[in-house]
Design goal:
GO terms for molecular function: nucleic acid binding. Belongs to the UPF0102 family. This is UPF0102 protein CHRY9390_01436. Pfam families: UPF0102. InterPro entries: Restrct_endonuc-II-like (IPR011335), tRNA_endonuc-like_dom_sf (IPR011856), UPF0102_YraN-like (IPR003509). The protein has 2 helices and 5 strands. By secondary structure, it is an alpha+beta fold. The chain has one domain: 3-Layer(aba) Sandwich (Trna Endonuclease, Chain: A, domain 1), CATH 3.40.1350. The chain has a 5-stranded mixed β-sheet with strand order 1-2-3-4-5. Strand 2 and strand 3 form a beta hairpin. The termini are far apart.
């Protein structure tokens, strides 16, 4: 498997562990709707939290969270709307980003950005 796939999988596992440690209940991972995918859907404080996990081996060119484009936001929002309808959820939805980068010792570090974007950012 390619190194970037390994990094992505490790980043998603770390993000899920981080969310659980911070009081989230994981509802689903890698939820797919059409061509869109949501990395992690969790619940905390009666909120549905949709989390996009972005990992990079370096921040030399771009920070991981900067790779979440308007197009990506639009697909995440579309998938989130489908999830809410499919599972008959009526809570408020928050969109977070978890950025994962290696530090100088090559240990992966997490930056959690709650409420990173809103559904209307997709327009």
């Amino acid at each position: 498997m390619a190194d970037h796939n390994d990094l992505g999988r490790k980043a998603e596992d770390l993000a899920a562990e981080y969310l659980i440690k911070n009081g989230h209940r994981i509802l689903m991972r890698n939820f797919r709707y059409q061509k869109a995918e949501i990395d992690i859907i969790s619940e905390k404080d009666n909120l549905i939290v949709v989390t996009e996990v972005k990992a990079r081996s370096t921040d030399f060119f771009i920070l991981p969270q900067e790779a979440v484009t308007k197009g990506k936001i639009k697909s995440i929002v579309t998938a989130a709307n489908h999830f809410m309808e499919e599972f008959n959820k009526n809570q408020e939805v928050r969109f977070d980003i978890i950025s994962v980068l290696p530090d100088k010792n090559k240990n992966l570090t997490i930056e959690h950005i709650p409420d990173a974007f809103e559904a209307f950012d997709a327009n």
